[in-house]
Amino acid sequence: MNLLEHLDIQIKQTSPEQVELSLIVREIHKQPFGIMHGGMNGVLIETACSLGANQNVAQNEYCVGVDLQVNHLQAVSTGELNIIATPDKIGRTLQVWQATVYQKNKKIAVGRCTLMTQKAQTKD
Fold this sequence. Notes:
Elements: H1 3-7, E1 10-14, E2 19-24, H2 38-53, E3 61-72, E4 80-90, E5 94-103, E6 106-119
Antiparallel strand pairs: 1-2, 2-4, 3-6, 4-5, 5-6
Pfam families: 4HBT
Protein name: PaaI family thioesterase
Keywords: Hydrolase
Protein backbone atom coordinates (compact mmCIF):
# COMPACT_ATOMS: atom_id res chain seq x y z
CA MET A 1 0.00 0.00 0.00
CA ASN A 2 1.40 3.42 -0.90
CA LEU A 3 0.70 6.78 0.75
CA LEU A 4 -2.05 7.76 -1.69
CA GLU A 5 -3.90 4.51 -1.05
CA HIS A 6 -3.39 4.72 2.73
CA LEU A 7 -4.76 8.27 2.90
CA ASP A 8 -7.41 7.64 0.20
CA ILE A 9 -6.18 10.44 -2.08
CA GLN A 10 -7.97 10.17 -5.43
CA ILE A 11 -6.26 11.10 -8.70
CA LYS A 12 -8.85 12.79 -10.92
CA GLN A 13 -6.65 13.95 -13.80
CA THR A 14 -2.95 14.17 -14.67
CA SER A 15 -1.31 15.89 -17.61
CA PRO A 16 1.94 17.80 -18.19
CA GLU A 17 -0.02 21.05 -17.62
CA GLN A 18 -2.41 20.25 -14.76
CA VAL A 19 -3.13 17.73 -12.03
CA GLU A 20 -6.38 17.34 -10.11
CA LEU A 21 -6.75 15.32 -6.90
CA SER A 22 -9.52 14.92 -4.36
CA LEU A 23 -9.80 13.80 -0.76
CA ILE A 24 -12.71 13.30 1.59
CA VAL A 25 -11.60 14.39 5.07
CA ARG A 26 -11.84 11.52 7.55
CA GLU A 27 -10.68 10.91 11.12
CA ILE A 28 -7.32 9.55 9.91
CA HIS A 29 -6.55 13.01 8.43
CA LYS A 30 -7.30 14.99 11.61
CA GLN A 31 -5.14 16.24 14.45
CA PRO A 32 -6.31 15.90 18.09
CA PHE A 33 -8.38 19.12 17.97
CA GLY A 34 -10.72 17.73 15.31
CA ILE A 35 -9.48 19.64 12.27
CA MET A 36 -7.44 18.32 9.37
CA HIS A 37 -3.75 18.12 10.18
CA GLY A 38 -1.75 20.80 8.37
CA GLY A 39 0.66 18.18 7.12
CA MET A 40 -2.14 16.85 4.95
CA ASN A 41 -2.09 20.08 2.96
CA GLY A 42 1.63 19.52 2.39
CA VAL A 43 1.03 15.93 1.28
CA LEU A 44 -1.75 16.98 -1.10
CA ILE A 45 0.24 19.85 -2.60
CA GLU A 46 3.50 17.94 -3.05
CA THR A 47 1.67 14.90 -4.42
CA ALA A 48 -0.18 16.94 -7.04
CA CYS A 49 2.96 18.82 -8.06
CA SER A 50 5.05 15.64 -8.21
CA LEU A 51 2.51 13.82 -10.35
CA GLY A 52 2.52 16.71 -12.80
CA ALA A 53 6.28 17.13 -12.87
CA ASN A 54 6.73 13.44 -13.61
CA GLN A 55 4.57 13.87 -16.73
CA ASN A 56 7.30 16.17 -18.12
CA VAL A 57 10.37 13.90 -17.95
CA ALA A 58 11.73 11.02 -20.01
CA GLN A 59 10.90 7.41 -19.14
CA ASN A 60 14.35 6.92 -17.59
CA GLU A 61 13.90 9.95 -15.29
CA TYR A 62 11.75 10.90 -12.32
CA CYS A 63 11.20 14.05 -10.25
CA VAL A 64 11.62 14.48 -6.50
CA GLY A 65 10.59 17.41 -4.35
CA VAL A 66 13.45 19.57 -3.08
CA ASP A 67 11.44 22.46 -1.62
CA LEU A 68 7.87 22.79 -0.41
CA GLN A 69 6.12 25.93 0.82
CA VAL A 70 2.57 25.80 2.17
CA ASN A 71 0.23 28.51 3.43
CA HIS A 72 -2.76 27.26 5.43
CA LEU A 73 -5.67 29.64 4.80
CA GLN A 74 -8.69 27.92 6.35
CA ALA A 75 -9.21 25.02 8.74
CA VAL A 76 -11.48 22.15 7.69
CA SER A 77 -12.91 19.24 9.64
CA THR A 78 -15.22 17.51 7.15
CA GLY A 79 -16.08 17.37 3.49
CA GLU A 80 -14.40 16.93 0.14
CA LEU A 81 -11.23 18.74 -0.87
CA ASN A 82 -10.11 19.32 -4.44
CA ILE A 83 -6.52 20.05 -5.36
CA ILE A 84 -5.36 21.66 -8.60
CA ALA A 85 -1.67 21.96 -9.51
CA THR A 86 -0.13 23.77 -12.49
CA PRO A 87 3.47 24.43 -13.52
CA ASP A 88 5.17 27.81 -13.23
CA LYS A 89 8.41 26.63 -14.86
CA ILE A 90 9.39 23.38 -16.56
CA GLY A 91 13.15 23.21 -17.00
CA ARG A 92 15.58 20.43 -17.83
CA THR A 93 16.59 19.77 -14.22
CA LEU A 94 14.18 21.84 -12.11
CA GLN A 95 10.44 22.36 -12.23
CA VAL A 96 8.38 24.75 -10.12
CA TRP A 97 4.71 23.95 -9.61
CA GLN A 98 1.97 25.64 -7.60
CA ALA A 99 -1.13 24.03 -6.14
CA THR A 100 -4.31 25.13 -4.41
CA VAL A 101 -6.46 23.08 -2.05
CA TYR A 102 -10.16 23.99 -2.33
CA GLN A 103 -13.31 23.07 -0.48
CA LYS A 104 -16.15 23.98 -2.84
CA ASN A 105 -14.96 27.41 -4.07
CA LYS A 106 -13.08 28.37 -0.89
CA LYS A 107 -9.27 28.23 -0.82
CA ILE A 108 -8.07 26.06 2.06
CA ALA A 109 -4.32 26.14 1.33
CA VAL A 110 -1.89 27.26 -1.35
CA GLY A 111 1.60 26.00 -1.97
CA ARG A 112 4.58 25.86 -4.25
CA CYS A 113 6.89 22.92 -4.86
CA THR A 114 10.28 22.83 -6.56
CA LEU A 115 11.18 19.45 -8.02
CA MET A 116 14.48 18.11 -9.36
CA THR A 117 14.84 15.63 -12.20
CA GLN A 118 16.80 12.48 -11.40
CA LYS A 119 18.03 9.69 -13.66
CA ALA A 120 16.54 6.32 -12.80
CA GLN A 121 19.11 3.85 -11.54
CA THR A 122 19.71 0.92 -13.85
CA LYS A 123 20.46 -2.53 -12.50
CA ASP A 124 23.81 -3.88 -13.65
